[in-house]
Design brief:
Blueprint: E1 5-9, H1 17-30, E2 33-41, H2 52-78, E3 83-90, H3 92-100, E4 105-108, H4 115-121, H5 124-131, E5 136-138, H6 142-145
Parallel strand pairs: 1-2, 1-4, 2-3, 4-5
Helix pairs in contact: 3-5
Length: 147
């Protein structure tokens, strides 16, 4: 199977950088294209009334998303790989799983949730592996191992 359409979910954390490098290497070998996906996690807002502080947080997350996908694009450019940047709103698991039907493989890190947040929300990578419509490569970073 040729992995020419590669999805790389990123949250901009150190936990995703090893996966991004793996995806770039895979794209080089397969002649593939990468789509860098950042999901602005709408589940964090819950039933919070929309006011200026919520808007400020949303704007900060949107900027963080564009920075995260721009990192993937710059690494791709350095290596001659085409990268499309995609920032969407939603639940990270649902958004990644929904997108998976359009890709040959997902290459992802463990994402940056740790401790209580990981306990409450579960592992994004674990759920994506379980429900994705394409193969998933989960890359554990050295930063994750040291936590």
């Amino acid at each position: 199977m040729a992995f020419t359409k590669i999805l790389v979910p990123t949250d901009g954390s150190e936990f995703t950088k090893a996966a991004i490098r793996e995806a770039v290497d895979l794209a080089k070998v397969s002649g593939g294209k990468i789509t860098a996906l950042y999901v602005i996690d709408q589940t964090l807002f819950g039933n919070v009334p929309v006011d200026s502080s919520v808007n400020a947080i949303y704007d900060m997350m949107d900027k963080e998303g564009h920075n995260a996908t721009a990192f993937v694009k710059s690494l791709g450019k350095e290596n001659g790989i085409e990268v499309e940047e995609l920032v969407v709103n939603g639940s990270p698991v649902k958004s990644i799983v929904e997108a998976s039907k359009d890709f040959d493989i997902i290459v992802m890190g463990t994402l940056g949730r740790t401790g209580f947040a990981k306990f409450m929300m579960g592992s994004v990578a674990e759920k994506v592996v379980r429900f994705a419509k394409c193969p998933v490569m989960v890359v554990k970073s050295s930063e994750a191992e040291s936590k």
